[in-house]
């Protein structure tokens, strides 16, 4: 029994090694799709119709450009280990959600671009590790709300672009820790000026007017009034509590937890294949349990193939006779 198992395991290890070899080509000079500038530790994979992030991005990458592709989801571990990364461009993709913790290891990040995607929500505390961030663009998405405390750790942030979203309000204290903010884009959102919870934003804009660019451009969804100018009387309604999805009347919105779970389910075909082979991390060969699991997967597949062919042969045999 040992012989076939070992042979199968060897086969699996060889095939995963082959896949890992195939994945290794990141840069054009090695047959990959990305332009790499090794002196600048820069990897540019822009506008390549990518549906998945290339593997084997060097851990010392400083600038990673993935804009203008077809990324619709990111694996939770997509950027793990890239602790020296300073610039990450994910703009112009099809991202609908972000996995929890996706940026947690990017402690050196200064510039994060997520504009022109289809984000409807942000996971809780998704920017908490980005304490050096100075530039964050989220414009041209479909954000319905900002999670409580989302920007609390971004004390170095100078530019925040939230324009062209579906925001109706921001939670109380949302911008209070942005000590260095110079430019904040809020326009082209349907700010709901009839709800009392808009008064935090109004007061913040009034306080920062003149010191933070562009904040006066925020306008109420109804009546073309600037958020800056709304009165207590305008904003007299007690609307939905700010920690539920603010004033969204539809009950069809998916709860955040479901969205994040969905993300883990969506896998590009290659990843499925790798999973089938017991192959998880780009630079790890399968461990023994993974290998054993793969073998049982293989044997199961062989068995079902054999059964199917037997059934087909039987049917043919039967038809011939008849
Ligand atoms: C941040 O970047 C610097 C400079 O590249 C590097 O020396 C340092 O190790 C990075 N920080 C972490 C936590 O990796
Ligand atoms: C605005 O900036 C000026 C000059 O930098 C500073 O003196 C003032 O305290 C600032 N005001 C606010 C509300 O931050
Ligand atoms: C809103 O959040 C606060 C604290 O974050 C909590 O105490 C309160 O129960 C929440 N309200 C609702 C309606 O969930």
TrEMBL record:
Keywords: Leucine-rich repeat, Membrane, Receptor, Repeat, Signal, Transmembrane, Transmembrane helix. The chain crosses the membrane at residues 295-316. The keyword Transmembrane helix applies. SMART domains: LRR_BAC (SM00364), LRR_TYP (SM00369). Residues 1-22 form the signal peptide. It comes from the Eukaryota. Gene3D superfamilies: Ribonuclease Inhibitor. One of its GO terms (cellular component) is plasma membrane. SUPFAM superfamilies: L domain-like. This is Variable lymphocyte receptor A.
């Amino acid at each position: 029994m040992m012989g076939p198992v070992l042979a199968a395991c060897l086969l699996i290890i060889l095939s995963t090694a082959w896949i890992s070899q195939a994945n290794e080509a990141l840069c054009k000079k090695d047959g990959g799709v990305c332009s790499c500038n090794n002196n600048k530790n820069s990897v540019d994979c822009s506008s390549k119709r990518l549906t998945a992030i290339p593997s084997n991005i060097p851990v010392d990458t400083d600038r990673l450009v993935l804009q203008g592709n077809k990324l619709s989801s990111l694996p939770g571990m997509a950027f793990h280990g890239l602790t020296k990364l300073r610039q990450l461009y994910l703009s112009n993709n099809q991202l609908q959600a972000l996995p929890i913790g996706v940026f947690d290891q990017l402690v050196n990040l200064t510039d994060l671009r997520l504009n022109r995607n289809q984000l409807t929500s942000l996971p809780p505390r998704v920017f908490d590790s980005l304490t050096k961030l100075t530039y964050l663009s989220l414009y041209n998405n479909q954000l319905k709300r900002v999670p409580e405390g989302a920007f609390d750790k971004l004390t170095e942030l100078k530019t925040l672009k939230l324009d062209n979203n579906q925001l109706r309000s921001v939670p109380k204290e949302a911008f209070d820790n942005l000590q260095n903010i110079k430019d904040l884009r809020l326009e082209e959102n349907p700010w709901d000026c009839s709800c009392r919870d808009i008064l935090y934003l109004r007061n913040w804009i009034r306080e920062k007017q003149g010191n933070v660019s562009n904040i006066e451009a925020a306008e109420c969804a109804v009546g073309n009034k600037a958020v800056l100018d709304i009165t207590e009387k305008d904003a007299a309604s007690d609307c939905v509590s700010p920690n539920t999805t603010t004033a969204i009347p539809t009950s069809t919105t998916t709860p955040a937890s479901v969205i994040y779970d969905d993300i883990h389910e969506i896998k590009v075909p290659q990843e499925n294949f790798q999973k089938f082979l017991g192959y998880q991390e780009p630079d790890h060969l399968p461990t023994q349990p993974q290998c054993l699991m793969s073998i049982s997967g293989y044997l199961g597949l062989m068995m079902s193939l054999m059964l199917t062919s037997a059934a087909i042969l039987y049917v043919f045999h039967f038809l011939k006779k008849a």
